Amino acid sequence: MRVTFNELAERELNDAAQYYEQEQPGLGTALIAEVRRCTAAIAEHPESGPIVLGAIRRRLCQRFPYGLLYTVSGSELRILAVMNLKRRPGYWVGRT
């Protein structure tokens, strides 16, 4: 399955990793590894995430307060947001 990230989702991941890395060396790398693990799990079972809105699904990360919001279209997995679960909930609506 081909995986793509919305530009804003990629920025969210990079910003979060940079923040965690400043808090504790190695923690940013751990966040990126967790997002990769979640992305691989989604690619294996794309229908497993609960539907959040329309065709958008969510997968929660372990160890970090983040969720991946995604859509599946044919053989493409599109990550729409790397959402901080403690942030305002609907900020990502409208992304493709």
Quickly count the helices.
2
- CATH fold naming: YaeB-like fold
Helix content: 25-40%
CATH-level-2 architecture? 2-Layer Sandwich
List low-confidence stretches: none
Gyration radius (Cα, Å) is 13 Å
Description:
The chain is an alpha+beta fold. The protein has one domain (2-84): YaeB-like fold (2-Layer Sandwich), CATH 3.30.2310. 36% of the residues lie in helices and 30% in strands. It has two helices and five strands, in the order βααββββ. Strands 1-5-4-3-2 form a five-stranded mixed β-sheet. β2 (51-53) and β3 (56-60) form a beta hairpin. α1 (7-23) packs antiparallel against α2 (27-44).
Brief descriptors of the model:
2 helices, alpha+beta, 96 residues, 5-stranded mixed sheet, YaeB-like fold, 5 strands, 36% helix, 30% strand
